[in-house]
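Suppose a colleague, Dr. K., hands you the sequence of a protein chain of 863 amino acids and asks what its three-dimensional shape might be. Before reaching for any lab equipment, you can write down a predicted structure in token form. Begin with the sequence itself:
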Amino acid sequence: MLQKKADEYLSVLVGSLENPLWEIDREHIQNVGEFYIQNDLIDFLEIKDARGELFFKARKPGEQELMLRRSAIFYNLELIGQVEIGITTRQLNMRLNDLLWSSFLSIIAVLAVITSLTGLLLRMYLRRPLDQLSQVVSEFAAGNYNENSARLRVQELEQFVKVLSEMGNKINSQLKDLRQAELKYRGIFENSVEGIFQTSPDGNIISANPAMAKILGYDSPEDLMTTVKDVSTALYVDSDRRKLLMTKLETDDMATGFETRFYHKNGSQVYCLVNVQAIRDKNGRMLRLEGFMTDNTKRIEAEKEVQIYRNHLEELVAKRTEALAKANKQLLKENAEREKAEAALKESEERFRSILEDSVDPIVVYDDKGRANYTNPAFQDLFGWSHAELSDEDTPFVPDACRKENRKSYIAVLKDAKVGVFESQRRTKNGELVDVLVSASVLRDKDNIITGAAVSLRDITESKKLESQLRQAQKMEALGTFAGGIAHDFNNIIAAIMGYAEVGLSHLKNDRVNPKMLEGILAAAKHATGLVQQILAFSRKTESELCPTNLAEVVSETVPIIERTIPKMISIGLHFENEIKPVNADPNQIGQIVLNLASNAKDAMPEGGELTIKVENVTYDQGGEDLYSEDLRGDYVLLSVSDTGVGIDEKTLEHIFDPFFTRKDVGKGTGLGLASVYGIVMNHQGHITCESEEGEGSVFKIYFPALAGDVEPVKPVKSEDCQARGGKEYILFVDDEQALREIGKEVLSIGGYQVVTACNGEEALEIYCENQAELDLVILDVSMPGMGGDKCLKELIKFDPKVKVLIATGYSLGSELSETLAAGASGYIAKPFNMNNLLYKVREVLDETQGGVGSASPVPKPH
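The predicted structure, expressed as tokens, is then:
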């Protein structure tokens, strides 16, 4: 029986420890241990987890003989710990004491019977003592175990009462111990963290501790027992779980680790773990249920969360596994493709190496630092160096004069990642220079990063020679065309001059003077002057007299001339933007540009059409995008001349500004119109473009740099509008052409000047040295045989630093003229000049250098 009782306690204890051990709730485990060790039956208790860690151990003092019982603790079939208890044989002694107590009560009953039987015999002698004994026994039976023998007078009974008194004292002591034990167990009952309860088989709550009331949300056990009348309907969420529990108790008398849900007072559900034992009477009838209840809500919710997380994790693992499988499949595919690509790359490398090795053009491979790390056999054949003879840092085949250009071009190729082609020179090992066509392209690695460049050096020395010969032949051919046109125009001019002169002489013989003949000669000469100016403009050997100019005003003054020279069936449209910015320009040359473009437009519209001239301000921040134009940045004034004529085909469009290029037949023009326009535009630091298609007309756009700041344009003043004034000064006129000397002397004499002439520089020096005091001005031709004008000027200045010299020349490059003026010349006049121009310039120079005779207030500068 003692073993069965021990097993029952062990089973209940295991049920109480399942949750605390699973959750490692040390405080809870400690409370359970302390509760059970208080049981008089249990003298030893030890609780460990599955790893052997000790959570609780206690043994009562004394050397009692123990019966040890041990049990493993499982949670969801997982070993989580073990519990061991020791039961003392003291329980048997307690059973014997109970038996003695029963025997004692039986003896008292027997004594009472004997007393009653002998009372009749002893009534007379023993009545009073017996009454007193009866009173003592009654008090003893009522629980008063104090000694009462003093009341008895019969000596024979005093000893008996004394024995009873001693037994009463022992019983009193044991009852006191029982009360103390009851108080102790009551404290454990009240303070346990687990719910402890007693219920009747039909579901009434007999007792409950505060922990149970708290778990179910009630204020106190009384509140719980008052509210809940039947646990099966008021507490159990699932009444079938209550039925299942009762069935288990009917069979086994005990249910451990029974999980169910109870209603909380607030209506929510509480997950609980219940350990229950059925208490029966001696007939086996179930009297009540006793047990423990643990709140498992947090654990259940945690398990649900863990399950959700586990499901999510399993889902992620499944997805990741699937992704890894796909990635592995893709990787295998990529590896196969890579192997295939590597094989193709190897084949390609072999093929390209063969191409490099077999190429007839020298090829050099540079790295990204510009070092040559490969040359093909053709390189050694042409330049003489093998690759072994070239160091990484040295490129002796690049001439010093080409190194800067070569480096710049190489950097541009690396930067733009484009193929660059340009002409240059390279040096052979024996020092000869070879003309080469350089073609460079970038090299990239597998990550598409530029690692260097491959440069092909094609020998074009012979091609350059042939090209030079062809260019010379083309020049001669074009020059023949040009000469034919010039000859035709000059022959017409000469024929006109000769005709007017012969008719004029004929009239003189008859004492008649016809001014028209002289005017005809003058007009022919002006025509010839214009033709020469076109040639000089084309060759850029004419000097531009630049000043702040309003292009709209120049175009407006030129339009009347255009209207007189084009057919009436061509209309002219003008479009000027307000507040046109001034440009630094020569108004006469701007007018020449407009006239030449208008003449071309007229030839392009034989059936009539519309000529449109626009002037507007434009600004470029990123550069222009027009055909032929260079990068334009900044402010410009745009002059546009467009027509609705036949247009220009693409092939011809490429050559319209080329020297000597013309589509006209011989004798119908020199083809200098657009060439001279191009030359004038370049002299003005401008840009010119042409847009045209066959049948769609043409648009010429000319960009002139706008002047910065507030600059007022200068109103052009023609020398013909200014009255030339003469003087009395002494002038030396120097020219190698006798006709010019005679005309110059005559014109100056008409102006009142005294004139002496010289035919070359030597004679001029001699005359000036002899007449220095009388001479006020020297008019000096620059282009003369012998000493020449430049040297003569230097000698004159050397002899007399204050000498006044007016330079006269048919043409001069800007740099040469600037040098001549810087050497000390006082002014410049262009040939051919008319009488008014010459007299005006002479007066201007004399007035600027001295306040001599004939000086007057300043006159506007002619153009």
